[in-house]
Amino acid sequence: MKKRKQLKDLISGVEDGIYIMGDGSWSIDQQRYNFQFGGQLFYEIKNGEIRQMLRDVIYQGNTQSFWKSCDGICGKDEYKLCGTLFCGKGEPSQSAPVSHGAVPARFRNITILNSRLHT
Question: Residue 25 and residue 58: Cα distance in Å, rounded?
């Protein structure tokens, strides 16, 4: 895997893709193997350029094949810390702040669905 310093470098290698920003809905099995995630913002990528905004995007897969499909990551200057007030644990639901940080990454051949059609 080749490390990249900036987001524009990462995107420049994409002919046809989707740029997903932030976190959205999620579903993951008890073993943390199969998953489905959404995001907050979605943009079409064509020929290495971010284009129009998209709606209702989700991606799914299993943990092993997903991480094996990662072929590029940005450098530490693109690091962003994100968080939520809900950890997703407990019955009844509990409120507990959680956070994680990450850099943008590129994944190839991921299953992308239109959530409007699949919910």
Answer: 8
